[in-house]
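[worker-b] picked up task from shared queue
[worker-b] task type: protein-ligand structure
[worker-b] ligand name resolved to NAP; SMILES cross-checked against name lookup, match
[worker-b] sequence length check passed
[worker-b] input payload:
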Amino acid sequence: MNILIIGASSGIGREVSLLFLRNGHRVAMCARRIEPLEEIRRQFPYKSFVKQIDVNDCNSTSEFENISSEIGDLDCIFNVAGIGWQNRDLDSEKELLTVETNVEGFTRTIDWAFHYFASLGIKGHIGVISSIAGTKGLGPAPAYSASKAYQNTYVQALSQLSKIKGLGITFTDVRPGFVDTPLLGDGNSYPMLLKPEKVAKHIYKALLRRKRVCIIDWKYRVLVFFWRLIPNFLWYRLKI
Ligand SMILES: NC(=O)c1ccc[n+]([C@@H]2O[C@H](COP(=O)([O-])OP(=O)(O)OC[C@H]3O[C@@H](n4cnc5c(N)ncnc54)[C@H](OP(=O)(O)O)[C@@H]3O)[C@@H](O)[C@H]2O)c1
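[worker-b] inference finished, payload out:
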């Protein structure tokens, strides 16, 4: 398989890239930091391709075109790029940065992926990492949880659009719980922390099987099930 992974320089994206490469796939990797990508390329010189791309840059789509012409026709495009933090002080600058990457950058990237497959007539697969945080509005992370709910809905909408247009483009929405990556390196402690290597294995299978929604792992599936049942008047009172 030829796969493009956006946000491959650390955390979950890096682990997923390594797993695809170890299993013999050809992987094109993007992020703003190029050196971590070059380090992977040195390990897999014949199967990996790298490009420095900022999803918030309007020109990122032409860079996606460039790297996809290097690797050849893509079968799968996986968007991992995202930022987030706790923001209990409701610092608007942080909120807007989150929206810029997780909503605007995300939309630019996913729209490009959709048009890429549609214009080539490829029944390709598009994966995104949203989060279980999209299930409910989280007081400590307002823009983050709202941006993840946006991603959930956007992917649902494009799945329907693909059907309406008869394009055969499919989607996986990956929703992990807390994962031990630099994104959570803010000094706070997080419960039920998952290892990125383990999360990458779940994602690998979900992308190959074109699973529509993938909540990782089973403990978080149970948690999300009960979260959804909590009525708003109780949710607002929860001290999380
Ligand atoms: N860790 C968790 O607990 C957790 C839970 C659920 C969902 N997620 C989601 O999983 C995804 C990956 O996060 P992670 O935990 O693996 O954190 P991470 O290690 O910080 O990885 C984030 C990745 O996104 C890339 N990125 C960020 N902004 C970008 C931009 N403007 N343009 C291009 N690439 C950009 C980063 O690369 P550069 O900095 O080099 O650009 C990096 O490769 C995020 O969408 C996050 O919301 C994480």
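[worker-b] attaching auto-annotations
[worker-b] The helical segments are 11-22, 35-43, 60-71, 92-120, 142-164, 196-208, 218-229, 232-235.
[worker-b] releasing lock
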